[in-house]
From TrEMBL:
Keyword Transcription applies: yes
Native source organism of the sequence: Streptomyces xanthii
Residue ranges, annotated region (Disordered): 1-55
Keyword annotations from UniProtKB, A to Z: Transcription, Transcription regulation
Keyword Protease: no
Protein name, as recorded: Zf-HC2 domain-containing protein
Domain Putative zinc-finger: 68-97
InterPro entries in alphabetical order: Anti_sigma_zinc_sf (IPR041916), DinB/YfiT-like (IPR034660), Znf_put (IPR027383)
Gene3D superfamilies in UniProt: Anti-sigma factor, zinc-finger domain, dinb family like domain
Length: 422
């Protein structure tokens, strides 16, 4: 199958046969000189001095061009040569130097420093977003959400505490009458205190009492319960108290959520009486009270370890302020009975400013507010009012704006501080 004197068309063909001699070696053989040259050695490997390279010529730019580069220079977007030219120009041009300073300050506002800590309200916002798309089958009652949020925030604060932080000293402060009292404990002791007082709600809901068995008498108040729990421990409380506190808080939230849909209304489980020893609160108010105390003591703990702690969400703060305002008439009546004084037919307008605030008419007469005259007006910031109600601020030092009857004003401020307890 081959032509005369020509190769067979089916014989194998090697393209190197058509290459000139020398590419693969003499005659195109595979064993000739290497096709790819070896890498050249670097000057740095020879030990000889490096050659002196001429310095790059500085850019010579007109003033208007340099001025137009100031924005890019402030954003660090210039080339090295352009940046050098701009900086050299700023040393001799005061107008451009002032403009460059203003631009650098503006760039700083675009990159504001942010805390590396997560927003304490992030959990609440994420849950709210999730629930708005897919409502929970068993939602938490609205009056229990402040307690849910504040226990979650305190738990996040405690999460990374070491042994040293758990034993940091904390001083609890409260008022009895006109006298401020205090009790020294530790961070772990504060959590044990929260366990003991939250146990009042747990017992009323049929859950285990942290002080039992045997269950303590119902007449035992928050302070006595706390002392009993501290004394029952063989050793001072340690970080081990966090687990039972978390479990108790979760169990309380689960129980009130599963109790039934009537809890949102005026009756049902939301009105279950919770005894505090010398007074009683309905469950919906007791949960706001427990949220308030959780926030206050979380602030005490944060102060002990030198850590910032934010106020609750405005709608949660409003529930706490509203509870304190509604408890003031009874507190005032108790003070009047002790002093054999009756402030008949008088009202005080309490204005709490800021997020979560509002206005309340406080009857100074225990018989009621009908037909009474407004004799004074007090205005406080929301957080300041809560600090006063927690016994953290002396009544005489409360940052309050006021007009009217000074005796009525001081009586209300003192009664507000008297709402505090251990």
């Amino acid at each position: 199958m081959s032509g005369a004197g020509g190769p067979d068309r089916f014989d194998s063909y090697d393209p190197r046969d058509d290459e000139p001699e020398g590419r693969y070696g003499a005659g195109g053989a595979r064993g000739g000189a290497a096709r790819i040259p070896t890498p050249r050695s670097s000057v740095e490997d020879t030990g000889r001095p490096l050659p002196d390279l001429p310095a790059p010529e500085p850019l010579v730019l007109e003033h208007r061009v340099l001025k137009s580069l100031l924005g890019a220079w402030a954003l660090a977007a210039c080339s090295p040569e352009e940046a050098a030219a701009v900086e050299d120009h700023l040393g001799g041009c005061g107008t451009c130097a002032e403009e460059a300073l203003r631009l650098r300050d503006a760039v700083g506002l675009l990159h504001a420093d942010e805390s590396l800590d997560l927003d304490p309200l992030l959990r609440a916002r994420v849950l709210e977003g999730c629930l708005s798309r897919r409502p929970a089958r068993i939602p938490v009652p609205s009056w229990a959400t402040p307690y849910d949020a504040e226990t979650a925030r305190l738990d996040a604060l405690l999460k990374d505490f070491g042994d040293g932080e758990w034993h940091a000293p904390v001083r609890l402060r409260w008022y009895e009458g006109d006298e401020q009292l205090s009790r020294k404990t530790t961070v772990a002791g504060v959590i044990a205190h929260l366990i003991s007082v939250d146990g009042l709600v747990a017992r009323a809901l049929g859950l285990d009492d942290p002080l039992g068995p045997p269950a303590p008498p119902e007449s035992l108040g928050p302070a006595a319960r706390t002392e009993a729990l501290w004394q029952a421990s063989h050793f001072p409380p340690t970080r081990a108290v966090r687990a039972p506190w978390r479990e108790q808080a979760h169990e309380l939230i689960r129980t009130v959520s599963f109790a039934g849909s009537d809890m949102e209304g005026g009756g049902g489980s939301g009105q279950l009486p919770i005894s505090y020893g010398d007074f009683t609160l309905p469950l919906r108010d007791a949960m706001a009270d427990r949220a308030f105390e959780c926030w206050v003591h979380a602030g005490d703990i944060a102060d002990a370890v030198d850590y910032p702690y934010e106020a609750p969400a405005p709608k949660h703060l409003h529930r706490m302020i509203d509870l304190a305002a509604r408890m003031l008439p009874d507190a005032l009546a108790g003070r009047d009975r002790e002093r054999d004084q009756v402030a008949a037919g008088r009202l005080l307008r309490l204005e709490v400013e800021g997020a979560g605030g509002g206005q309340w008419l406080i009857p100074l007469d225990p018989s009621g507010a009908e037909g009474a005259d407004e004799v004074a007006h007090v205005a406080l910031d929301g957080v300041e009012f809560c600090r006063l109600a927690a016994g953290r601020v002396p009544p005489a030092e409360a940052a309050a704006g006021s007009v009217g009857d000074r005796d009525a004003i001081m009586s209300v401020l003192t009664a507000t501080a008297g709402l505090s307890r251990m």
